[in-house]
Specification:
4-stranded antiparallel β-sheet; Ig_Fc_receptor; 24 strands; about 350 residues; transmembrane helix; 6-stranded mixed β-sheet; alpha+beta; transmembrane signaling receptor activity; Ig-like domain-containing protein
């Protein structure tokens, strides 16, 4: 009995070693999809890469089909159209993608044929609503918390549904692992962040990228956010007050400058008026009385000063009344008398008197 048990354990260990050796010697290709989120009708490119790169590979492309016979996350894989013999190109284009779907690739080469392992499943997420299959999240809001319950409801043309999720680190699981599936609804109180969708054998719904928040983290972020908002508002108000003060200061400065200019102009005007009023004009008029030349006689010259009467400053014309002196000799007759009685005015231009 002991020998039989020992032999069974040895055979099991040998199988594990052989499998590990095979796995280590067989490369696993890496599948990428672009774009990963699509709208109905978009084209999607699948790319299968084998490391290290080398020539002679043929690539085969598969679509993941849900296996609903088990509560675990199982998929069957079927070749895509036209991929029976594989392709020499390491890329494959899907035209008119309309719903969420998973894909896989594999490569082969040589004679006898050498196969790679299957790649990991990669999903193309559809954000558009598919009438044949749809996912509804309840409560319907942008922010969800880990302490709240979450309901994921599947609707469409299938009688049997399951709710799937791809975690943030890439692991795939179903509602049976983290919730309770009742009919076409998955209820959970332990939801985590990830991409959720509904699927059946023939249909897949739109996908929903849900982020689950921790209430304590949300509260701490709110505590940080409040001072930040208060600081921003205070800064904006301070800038507005400074601008208003600067504007008022400039107006006050301009007003003071205007008053100063008016004062200077008024002072200059008063100074000009006072200067005009205080200006004096003097006129010196000399008359020379010439007699007929006689022998041994000299001309009789005597200066005559006039009384000057200044008219208004606006006239800028000064008149002087001049009284000629009376002569000593009376033989001058009538002409001399007429000269005494006659008043003479002279026009004098005002000027500045220099003492």
């Amino acid at each position: 009995m002991g020998q039989t048990l020992f032999g069974a354990l040895g055979l099991f260990s040998l199988n594990i070693l052989l499998y590990c050796g095979y796995a280590q010697g067989v490369p696993q290709p890496v599948l990428t999809v672009s774009p990963s989120w699509t709208s109905p009708g978009d084209s999607v490119t699948l790319t299968c890469s084998v490391e290290p790169p080398s020539a002679g590979w043929r690539f085969f492309w598969f679509k993941a089909v849900p296996d609903m016979s088990s509560t675990n996350t199982y998929y069957n894989f079927e070749l895509l159209a036209g991929g029976t013999n594989g392709t020499e190109q390491d890329s494959y284009i899907l035209h008119g993608q309309t719903h969420t779907a998973g894909y896989q690739c594999r490569a082969e080469r040589g004679d006898p044929v050498f196969y790679t392992q299957y790649s990991d499943v990669k999903f193309v997420w559809s954000g558009g609503v598919n009438p044949a299959a749809s996912l509804t999240v309840s409560p319907h809001r942008l922010q969800h918390f880990s302490t709240e319950s979450l309901s994921l409801i599947c609707e469409g043309n299938s009688a049997e549904w399951r709710v799937m999720k791809v975690h943030e680190y890439g692991h795939i699981s179903s509602c049976y692992n983290w919730g309770e599936m009742t009919g076409s609804t998955c209820n959970t109180t332990t939801a985590s962040s990830g991409v959720y969708w509904c699927e059946s054998v023939t249909q897949s719904s739109n996908a929903a990228n849900i982020t689950i928040h921790n209430p304590e983290e949300a509260a701490s972020s709110s505590v940080f956010l409040v001072p930040l908002v208060v600081g921003l508002v205070s800064g904006v108000l301070l800038i507005i007050l400074l601008l208003l003060f600067l504007r008022r200061y400039r107006k006050s400065e301009a007003s003071s400058l205007s008053r100063s200019q008016r004062t200077n102009q008024s002072a200059a005007t008063d100074h000009m008026i006072n200067q005009d009023e205080s200006s004096l004009t003097y006129s010196v008029v000399e008359f020379k009385h010439l007699k007929k030349k006689e022998k041994h006689d000299e001309p009789d010259e005597s200066p005559v000063y006039s009384d000057v009467r200044i008219a208004s400053a606006a006239d800028y014309v000064t008149y002087a009344q001049v009284h000629p002196p009376t002569g000593k000799k009376s033989n001058e007759g009538k002409s001399r008398c007429a000269a005494e009685e006659e008043t003479v005015y002279s026009e004098v231009k005002p000027g500045t008197f220099d003492q």
